[in-house]
Amino acid sequence: MNVNRVKQILSSSADIEVKYNNSSVWIDQLNEDGKTATVHLRGPLEERTIVNIESLVEE
After folding, report:
1. What is the pLDDT of residues 5-49, one digit of tens each?
2. Which CATH class is domain 3-58?
3. Cα gap 4→46, rounded to integer Å
């Protein structure tokens, strides 16, 4: 995924499914470096992880 699409998803009110390592995640924020994002798994676990945005896949 590219930085512009991450920004679009963050600003959208739609429920856009994004996957990281075949797990469905929410994107919390695009980090200042413009190359990573903070995400967490959809569901009850709120553990946040920093991932390379190139590893994110829109379903």
Report:
1. 999 999 999 999 999 999 999 999 999 999 999 999 998 877 899
2. mainly beta
3. 25
CA distance 25 to 39: 6
In order, the DSSP letters of the chain are --HHHHHHHHH--S---EEETTEEEEEEEE-TTSSEEEEEESSS---EEEEEGGGEEE-
What does the pLDDT read at residue 21? 95
Q: What is the pTM of this model?
A: 0.89
pLDDT tens-digit map of 35-45: 999 999 998 87
13: β partners: none
pLDDT at site 9 = 97
Question: Residue ranges per domain, the chain?
Answer: 3-58
